[in-house]
Write a structure and sequence with these properties.
Blueprint (H helix, E strand, L loop, with lengths): L19 H14 L5 H17 L5 H10 L3 H9 L10 H10 L2
Helix pairs in contact: 1-2, 1-4
Length: about 100
């Protein structure tokens, strides 16, 4: 059985408008797991990890468990580096509308 092709650059997957901290997490995730998954699958997993971490998305439990395993140590390090930086707060549409109406 042939091994997984690792002869590709993760950098070609950076989006032109992707924030630096998003790309740092995804790049490190791909570099750490390059020997475990083929290129397309790993890119998909990295994007999924980004969706979870930055957008609060949720996926089937098997996917969440796999990403937890593959990112062991990485997320803790990343979150520690992000402490003290500007953080985005998500507010539901309902809460935003209520605050506007009630001027709170």
């Amino acid at each position: 059985m042939a091994g997984i092709n690792q002869d590709w650059s993760v950098d070609k997957y950076r989006s032109e408008h992707e924030p630096e901290h998003h790309w740092e997490l995804k790049r490190e995730f791909m570099n750490r797991n390059k020997d475990r998954y083929d290129e397309q699958q790993l890119v998909c997993l990295a994007q999924t990890l980004g969706n979870i971490e930055f957008m609060g998305c949720q996926y089937p439990q098997d996917t969440m468990d796999l990403l937890q395993e593959l990112s062991t140590g990485l997320l803790a390090d990343f979150r520690e580096k992000q402490k003290g930086k500007l953080q985005r707060t998500f507010v539901s549409g309902k809460d935003a509308a209520n605050r506007k109406v009630n001027k709170k």
